[in-house]
Structures are given as C-alpha cells and as structure tokens.
Write a structure and sequence with these properties.
The chain has about 220 residues and is mainly alpha-helical. It has one domain. It contains eight helices and no strands. Helix 2 runs antiparallel to helix 5 and helix 3 runs parallel beside helix 5.
C-alpha cells in the first residue's frame, strides 16, 4: 500500500488513547449512573493491560528478559492501546438495540486497531512476535470492554463528535509534524535504574548474544 504507516502512530499512542478513555468514560458515567460500574471495569482492564506493557518493557531494559528465539522482549504498547480503545469507541457510537450495526462498528474498530499493530512492524518499531503478544493482550482487554459496556452508548452528539474528530485528525494529520514524548526512553531509564545498571539493555545486545566457542581438547602427542 502507498500510505504512510506513520499515520497510525498517534491513534495507538498513550498520549491520545488514555485521555480519550478517561474523558469518554467519565462523561458516560456522569450522564448515565447505570454505566458507572461498567466504565470502572473497563478502566480496570485497560489499567491492567497498560501495567503489563510497562512491566514487560521495564523488565527487558533492566534485566534483559524475553524469549530470544522468538525475538520477543515486551508487549507492543501501541497494539494493546489500539485494541482496547477503538473497537469500544466505535461500537458505542451505535445504540445497543441496533446489534448488527454495533457489531459492524466494532469490527471496523478491530480492523483499524489491526492496522495500528501492522504499522509497528512496517515501521520496524517492533518485531512481529511483540505485535502478536500485544494483540493477544489487547483483544482480551478490548473484548472485555465491549462485553461490560454492551448495554451502553456514548452521549449522542458529544461522544460522536469526539470520536469522529479524533479519527479525522489522526488520519489526516501530517505524520512528519507529530513530535510525541518518547515514553520508550523513560521505560529504559526506569529499567536500568531499578536493575542498578549504567545503561539499559539494548535490543541489539539481546539479539547478538552468542555462546562462547568451545575449545577443543588438547591433542595427545603420539
């Protein structure tokens, strides 16, 4: 495809997704008291997923954890956040009584989140193994969100406007103009500090570890 894969960086960024999750959930809970419990459970699922992503990154940068044979060091955070948010965000634009349309909107959200995950591979930000690991975690948390919020929808004009504007901005904004804070550097610094290392573990060092060549036994002279 000829599009710029960088256009999918912002839709999966914590700097966009987490504020949207907070604002949309708070407005829904404020306007519909029956939605307070489901929103809190959705938030809890997202918090658990985000903590697992952060823990996996900190553990790698600090102690070099991972599965070298799979080139797997952590969960892809963009993939996780895309999957926990966009299927729910799009599905809740449709009233629950229109089940077919709601399923279609959720499916569109899954596809959009899948493109966010694919962009991490295409941009070489993560290997396929880490995107798949993030997809597994994100599908679990996102599916749970769809389940607990299945009887609710965003406030009609307000929610629709926020989601639509965010989609348009993220898809039409010039990717070259985006300068997001580097959260990966923060995880690296935290991991190295907690492990007591001068520098964080690098992916190159993780992949290039080789066993020392064994020395042959000395030959016995005839």
């Amino acid at each position: 495809m000829s599009w710029d894969w960088r256009m999918f960086v912002l839709p999966g960024s914590a700097w966009l997704v987490l504020p949207l999750v907070t604002v949309l959930g708070a407005v829904l809970a404020g306007r519909d008291p029956s939605a307070r419990g489901p929103v809190l459970r959705w938030w809890a699922a997202i918090a658990a997923a985000v903590l697992l992503v952060a823990a996996s990154k900190i553990a790698f940068y600090g102690w070099g954890t991972g599965v070298r044979a799979w080139d797997l060091t952590c969960f892809s955070g963009h993939t996780v956040l895309g999957l926990v948010f966009w299927p729910v965000a799009l599905a809740l634009l449709v009233p629950p009584r229109y089940r077919g349309w709601r399923v279609s909107m959720a499916a569109a959200g899954w596809v959009f989140a899948g493109l966010i995950g694919a962009s991490r591979v295409m941009l070489r930000a993560h290997p396929l193994s880490e995107v798949l690991a993030g997809a597994l975690l994100g599908v679990i948390a996102g599916g749970y969100g769809l389940h607990v919020l299945r009887r609710h929808r965003w406030p009609r004009a307000w929610g629709t406007g926020v989601v639509a504007v965010c989609l348009l901005v993220t898809l039409w904004l010039d990717p070259r103009s985006m300068h997001l804070p580097d959260s990966e550097r923060w995880f690296a610094q935290i991991g190295a500090t907690l492990a007591g290392n001068e520098k964080p573990v690098s992916r190159r060092a993780f992949k290039d570890v080789k066993s020392a060549p064994s020395r042959g036994a000395p030959k016995v002279p005839p």
